[in-house]
Amino acid sequence: MNSTGMTSLAPGVPVDVNALPLRHSPVAAGQLAAGRPGTALHELGRFAGAELGVWEMTSGAMHDVEAEEVFLVTAGRATVEIHSDGAPRTLALSPGSLVRLNEGMRTTWTVHDTLRKVYLGIPD
Question: The domain that contains 69 carries what CATH number?
Answer without folding.
Answer: 2.60.120.10
